[in-house]
């Protein structure tokens, strides 16, 4: 699936200044309107009306519901409804830090899309068409991008059912409510342009999703998400597409892990650059975690390096070593995955690092590599006040 993230399948989409302004306004209105609905749900005791919502899927602390087709009339005037179209509600809690989640979910280009897909369930195929607002040193977790995606529908291989694809605006960022609480958000909303023509063997559908996350204690977030999908079919496809969309919502459980793995990858790159200049330090032949002596290499071990932490270069015994499969994108945009060994101390230290700082450091490294110098930003400015809309006309 990860190999299906591809280049733009359409002619170049060149957005005008007017296009960008319209897309920013659309995103701002959508974010703030649905944040009000999110707050009303949370402030009213987080009650899900069983007359309106039917349980669909559940995983860990998240529950997903689909709107009952005959219950549209039970929604109040200020509640979102699909007006007969398939509608999803996802609520509950998940472990982790909000900033780690934001670092894991943001995917403003092909490289970061492939990186996210390697750690979390995602779309069947996708591509970046154009950027409206890109991550910056001031707002490293903010992006607004036009994308294309394809969803695999069950029984597509029979030829009787065609996959659905979508042209959509994806917005990632952080806003504050009236009480000053930080909410991470992710929105997907269908858009269309003359260049984004229909593709062979696919049916163009429409979607409108948004999710919010709020930190409620040191290592727990609560989630509220809702979405409407138009599969352009009132029969079998309508029933088949709901579980597919529900799986996408449950994929958000992996975003924190993705953010932590991206932090590990970044620190590995730094250590590698440092070791090229300074060389790897000599370490005692003892496990850096439990101090157990590391015996000599066994026959066949020559050349293997899976017994040392790749961050501190210290030896780790078999019982103490931590192995993670990390994803790397080569210069030719090919995704590779490698198993990497860490010690407990380095793993804990890196995963505890501030994801905002790592995101800014990566952006600064890219700017320096491109020869674009920036003075950087000070303080935590990744959030915006309720009165300051998420996107302003800053372009890319």
Automatic annotation (TrEMBL):
Region of interest (Disordered), ranges: 373-396
Low complexity biased stretches: 374-396
Lineage: superkingdom: Eukaryota
Listed transmembrane segments: none
Name the UniProt record assigns to this protein: FYVE-type domain-containing protein
Organism from which the protein derives: Phytophthora ramorum
